[in-house]
Amino acid sequence: MSRIYNFSAGPSAFPETVLKQAQQEMLEWRDSGMSIMEMSHRGKHFSIIAEELQADLRTLLAVPENYKVLFLQGGASAQFSLVPQNILNGNTKACYLNTGAWSDKAISDAKAYCDVVVSVSSESTSFTTIPGAATWNIDKQAAYLHYTSNETIHGVEFHSCPDSQGLPLVCDMSSNILSRKIDVSQYGLIYAGTQKNMGPAGVTVVIVRDDLMGHALKTVPPVFNYAEQAKHQSMLNTPPTYSWYLVGLVLKWLQEQGGVEAIEEHNISKAALLYQAIDRSTLYSNPVEIASRSRMNVPFILADESLDKPFLAAAEANGLVALKGHRLLGGMRASIYNAMPVDGVLALIAFMAEFERTH
Ligand SMILES: *Cc1c(COP(=O)(O)O)cnc(C)c1O
């Protein structure tokens, strides 16, 4: 067996030690006599897994008491529609920052439920910038301000928490949650699919401040109603138990790495190494303004498009896979989430230099 370096944007690379632990516990979890997949979600064994999952995420992100942490289904995509339905609370307007493909998607889905005020858009720069806060048009009557902290496709990241001018701040944190320190108390609501930086696909984390819950539209199905799910520890129906378990293992792995602060240092240096290599070369380039470059997703293009295919083929032959860019942008993209070891980044950099030398 030989495991490769997987630069996929999601589902994405897992910490190898977590996969090994899951393998070890596959047939029997602790002394339960059964696999997690076979357990009742309300039984005593799974209750331990669920409680530890909740506690570990709260600890890692220092979630304050007045927030609930929910584990839902439907992906971040479902939240594009569920956020307005749950927290508009009679309001007809919501503000959105449009900084890339994912905020664009959130905006178009929200339009079914409210008047969307696009407070700023960087579309005119092909989503390579984050326009300064002074240029944002924030409507103080709106129910909330929504933004995407890391644009997985365009490779643009907010490196500080935006000033929502008093509105509850809502964030799609799917592709950089747990990669850097955040102050949860600055947010009204945070949501994230788990398959980028927290585990396998199938779970959506929603962290929501208590006062924003309880005013959902009557048409919202109970399993998508934050207050209902909070009342039932996210077990209004059968949760994806095995995915919860795997997310739990990834959180314990992250604690062993020293938590969010330690992994952030690691992520800063991995990203710096890769961007330096790109900026030094004449073959590769990254279009994003330096101050807004993502630490998680690094898109880059080759000066000669006809080299794309040979680049990808040679990369794969060298054990470096899933580097093809998103179909919207073309080119390449290296996703270097928490689980990507620095050795993987160094191997990519060495390969890129060798490819440039020989082409
Ligand atoms: C991947 C991603 C999504 C969509 O996630 P799904 O789980 O496929 O719904 C939404 N927002 C961001 C920022 C993402 O990276």
Query: Count of helical segments?
Result: 9
Note the main sheet.
Answer: 7 strands, mixed
CATH homology superfamily of the largest domain: Type I PLP-dependent aspartate aminotransferase-like (Major domain)
The run of helices and strands is: EHHEHEHEEEEEEEHHHEEHEEH
CATH topology of the largest domain: Aspartate Aminotransferase, domain 2
Q: What CATH architecture label of the largest domain applies?
A: 3-Layer(aba) Sandwich
Low-confidence stretches: none
Could you tell me the mean pLDDT?
Answer: 97
Bound molecules: pyridoxal-5'-phosphate
| CATH class descriptor of the largest domain | Alpha Beta
- The amount of beta strand, in percent, is 15-25%
Q: What order do the strands of the largest sheet run in, or round the barrel if closed?
A: 2-10-9-8-5-3-4
Structural class: alpha/beta
Anisotropy-based shape: globular
Query: What is the C-alpha radius of gyration, as a whole number of Å?
Result: 21 Å
Distance between the termini: 31 Å
- By DSSP, the count of extended strands is 14
- Tell me the number of structural domains: 2
- Helicity, in percent? 25-40%
How would you describe what is shown here?
The protein has helices at 16-24, 44-61, 75-87, 101-110, 226-231, 241-256, 259-280, 308-317, 342-358, and strands at residues 5-6, 67-72, 93-98, 115-121, 145-148, 150-151, 156-157, 169-172, 189-193, 204-209, 284-285, 297-302, 320-321, 332-335. It is of the alpha/beta class and 359 residues long. A 7-stranded mixed beta sheet has the order 2-10-9-8-5-3-4, sandwiched between helices. The protein has a 3-stranded antiparallel beta sheet with strand order 11-12-14, covered by helices on one side. A two-stranded parallel sheet has the order 1-13. The model has no long low-confidence stretch (mean pLDDT 97). It folds into 2 domains: 17-256, Aspartate Aminotransferase, domain 2 (3-Layer(aba) Sandwich), CATH 3.40.640; 259-358, Aspartate Aminotransferase, domain 1, CATH 3.90.1150.10. It starts with a strand and ends with a helix. Helix 1 (16-24) packs across helix 6, helix 3 (75-87) crosses helix 4 (101-110) and helix 7 packs parallel to helix 9 (342-358). The chain contains 9 helices and 14 strands. Bound molecules: pyridoxal-5'-phosphate. Pyridoxal-5'-phosphate binds at residues 10, 75-77, 102, 148, 152, 172, 174-175, 193, 196.
